[in-house]
User: Fold this.
Amino acid sequence: MPFLRRRKGKSPNSEPAPIDDDSETEKEHEPGQKQTARRRRNPNPNRWSCFANCCWLIGVICSIWWFLLFLLNAMPASFPQYVTEAITGPLSDPPGVKLRKEGLTAKHPVVFVPGIVTGGLELWEGHNCADGLFRKRLWGGTFGELYKRPLCWVEHMSLDNETGLDPSGIRVRPVSGLVAADYFAPGYFVWAVLIANLARIGYEEKTMYMASYDWRLSFQNTEVRDQTLSRIKSNIELMVATNGGNKVVVLPHSMGVLYFLHFMKWVEAPAPMGGGGGSDWCAKHIKAVMNIGGPFLGVPKAVAGLFSIEARDIAVARAFAPGVLDKDVFGLQTLQHMMRMTRTWDSTMSMLPKGGDTIWGGLDWSPEGNCHCNAKKGKNNDTNNAGPYGVNYGRIISFGKDVAETHSSKIERIDFRDAVKGNLLANATQCDVWTEYHEIGVGGVKAVSDYKIYTAGSILDLLHFVAPKLMARGDAHFSYGIADNLDDPKYEHYKYWSNPLETRLPNAPDMEIYSMYGVGIPTERAYVYKLTPTAECYIPFQIDTSAEGGSDNPCLKDGVYSSDGDETVPVLSAGFMCAKGWRGKTRFNPSGIRTYLREYDHAPPANLLEGRGTQSGAHVDIMGNFALIEDVLRVAAGATGEELGGDKVHSDIFKWSERINLDL
Amino acid sequence: MAASILRFRKLCYVQHVIQFETPNIENKDEGVKTPKFENELVEKQRSKNKNQNKRQPREWRCIHNCCWIIGFMCTTWWLLLFLYHTLPPAMTGFQVPESPGTRLRREGISPLHPVVMVPGIVTGGLELWEGRPCAEGLFRKRLWGGSFSEIFKRPLCLLEHLSLHNETGLDPPGIRVRAVPGLAAADYFAPGYFVWAVLIKNLAKIGYEGKNMHMAAYDWRLSFQNTEIRDQALSRLKSKIELMYATNGYKKVVVVPHSMGVIYFLHFMKWVESPPPMGGGGGPGWCATHIKAIMNIGPAFLGVPKAVSNIFSAEGKDVAYIRAMAPGVLDSKILGLQTFEHVMRVFRTWDSLISLLPKGGDAIWGNLDWSPEDGHICDLTKKGHLHSNAGDTNYNNSNGNRVFQVKEPMKYGRIISFGKETSQLPSSELPSHNLKELLQIGSPTNFNSSCGDVWTEYDEVSRESIGKIAEKKAYTVQTLFDLLRFVAPKMMQRAEAHFSHGIADNLDNPKYDHYKYWSNPLETKLPVALDMEIYCLSGVGLPTERSYIYKMSPSDKCKSIPFRIDSSADGETGSCLKSGAYFVDGDDTVPVLSAGFMCAKGWKGRTRFNPSGIATYIREYRHKPPVSLLEGRGTESGAHVDIMGNVALIEDILRVAAGATGAHIGGDRIYSDIMRMSERINLQL
Assistant:
């Protein structure tokens, strides 16, 4: 604060010396004064003690902070918008406002089905360490508790390793209502933008319903434990009844897509296992299912998630800072803990790739063919990439980059299935974190890496080998195959209900199914793995982030082969069913429900002020995509797929679907 | 903290001296001589500081000092906060008593019946779904409940959004304010001020969770039937109860309504069994199949006198008191608005308030000379600790009460009297009132109504007629309605299409099939449900408003409400009259009479209001104020809202929810005079 000090010192000066007419004297005067000031300070340097200085500093910061906060609060609400408009030019109206001017009003009730991870979970009963967290969010919100008591948090978020239900003494339940998934964390919207736009054309709580469920559980278990499916059924019936018989429009997102497939089978199945709604329940109650970013056939990310709990982002972090994630931060081995936790979540298994090699490609073949990952440019010069065999997406896991790129006939593979699970690692008992890898032993780990290449079909065997308990639970709830004969009575079991390749769509000719997803973002499709150097208490495999494709193979980056998609779900998984599997009257779609593909090309936000963008195609950010919102609003207000404009395709999904040889 | 303030003072003082001194020196010496003088100065300074203090805070200017103080306080605050958070809860020295949930869980009690909670008026949150430009950025934010920060930021905007349409009693055009759904609707009214949260927590302790607990939130501003018309709230509640019944192994639900929720649920029970166009079409056995028990908390079955003063002059006791103390604050135009008139205008658009007006007329509430509470001992010193002033404490209450009882008989029947004397005169001396006449004389003359931007219906009532209304008159419940019809014709017109406040002569009359009678226990029959149980759980031991003394508002300004509670009317020490209101026993809001009568007499056994003989139980909870500040709002409170944290009440609810019957939990438990009062009421059963 030199300015203040000087001014105060000066004012008494000028009074007794008004004759100072020159600027020179003024100039002489000033340094002199500064000197005196300095000297005055010198003799007693302790005058401003450290403590006082700190207090002073904090005081200044606090005051400024409060002042700014006050200004922020006093600021008119339209100010940020004004600034944005000044910089980027006038914003286009949000779709809700635009369509309201067109005269659209609420017609069909809307049901949201959130996906994995985005729904909030709250604590209803916990151990002592979770004192005071009753009905507070453990998942979603600020995640404050994760930092305060990480071990406690992990313990409460885990499910029982054998039943896949609550561990004893712990009850964590989904948040209910629209608040369950409107924002994932403060400021990070999921459904909020869509809700706000729906409200603009007249929707409100009574015509919108968030079908929140505990996304950690397998789908049938949500009914067993919480009767979630019954609640959804009852709520849809209520909404149809109280809104003059208008059928509902369902908007599932991400894993919610599979969940709702399961629901549609459940609700029409007879009572003990199903909901007993009768065979025309869907026809009577559902106008359209608008799947947003739906992983119908699973996502490769789930493989990496289960196999070594890393997706690309974590893998990079792990390579850069091995000390942070691998070492004992806060006395815990983060990754191992996370792995143990996520392995108790049955739902992650619903997202494993379905349809085996037929869909996802074999050793030397994949529907996507060559690399397309330079999203925008790729379409023009797609043969540019080198390598005698192109990129082989079919090999979802390969051990080593060279293995990934060699032709299958030249690779020696040793079958791991019969490998003896070696004796336990020497000091496995010292690892306080239990992961199933300890039980495989060194031999097992080696056997796994010796097999070298895993396709979608053999991935399942691999997971059975490395995580037998998890897969045992998973097999009871999910299935990943392709049905030969859908009339086989075994397909009445609930474990097939979430697999579109093993169930029929309900008999509802007036229903419409939309597949809406973003394209133009490189999406994880296959991985290059390596063995972890230290094999003690760590997860023995990790993504080989050093594997780079370089300029001749831009699809390989940080050990991950990417293809087109929305960053999480590859186009193949999101679009295939609507493009081919269900198109027209097929054996999976006996009543010929109309299907529409709506793709949204990704355009990153122009500047920071736009936040997450209004034209994004990313998996979650797409929920703020104006074009998608407009489509949803129009359908909710009564439009059909034809009126929207039918298919809107940017990717090569039709070409790829052609290549898949599936009996329809 | 005190030390630091002391230091601050010293600094300021010293600083002045220095400021005075330094310029002198600086003027004299420039350049060469400085060191010498500097030394001198330093020495001077030192010697002075030796006298005063060891420190030399020469350069502390005022701003620095302020900053220092703020910083110091912040640091201390953070430090304390940090300590508070790191301390285990047991270390704070306050032993938290074991909650009833934990205790009952150890006894082996587990959830059996699903629980439905029906919140009362005011306690439920309301959020904005569509609003005017002034409410930008408030989409899906709470307008009511929560922190109420918007009230301070944009009061007029908020009031505009909370009002309903004056004629339809529904949304004004362009505004949609809706009830918050879910348990969050009424668990806390404001941060830290629990309503249902304690009960929810205790239910959760014995194993309840989202799937077997439901908060039947509704827009409490609307008339009950309108909640169905606009939001289908009743249909939702029906579907929810049916769902919970089905998914919990066909166990009937236990309903826990509070305050106005009690009459809302009465309405629901009639609605659900009525045939479709007007009702829910559940059929005559619906309640019998789906409901095990109704545990009414602080039930306002027969209305509350507080509603009268709210509608008449927008003041309850507390507000009236403030108004008398600081007339400048509330009556003058703060921020350019006339608080009361605005609030009143908003109140008057809320139909639900009318449902709380006293029901049953003079037969229940007493006439000019008689009331069922006659002989009530008003022991404000013992019970009304909150309202007792210093004089009361010295008062010898053992003799006094008797004396006053004789000297000053309370005429509770006169629910509004103008002037203290009027409230005590024998009825023969009162002028007979003829409002019917008034209605003809004082037809709207548009008295100065252009003079205010605030519209209250009083503007349309001429001064002369207001004078006539007030002239030494007393009103009983029956004549009160005539009065209200006169001063607020539009509101009463709307309201009387939705509510009725009489006593039925013949319940079989087909007119009682109309929904406007459904929320009045004296004009409906309970459903036929032999196994059902009805509980009346209420607090007693708090003085509760029962009737009012009014006066004309002194100011003749055109825009003010012409009546106000005469808060100067105090009885002698120990009487029931205080600040212009007569008090009886109750829970601070609902008098015992209203809460208990139906369970004590109206529905007891097989009566014409209760044809199937549903069992009724009265459970009263005597108010005990919290012992220390640490207890917050107390665990044995009997106050209208605080009773939701009463451990005895929670235990009763938990036991019933876990399957116990009324007889198991001990049947009636009565502290008040409700039985005697009910005796005196002459109602054909």
DSSP finds 26 helices and 19 strands in chain A.
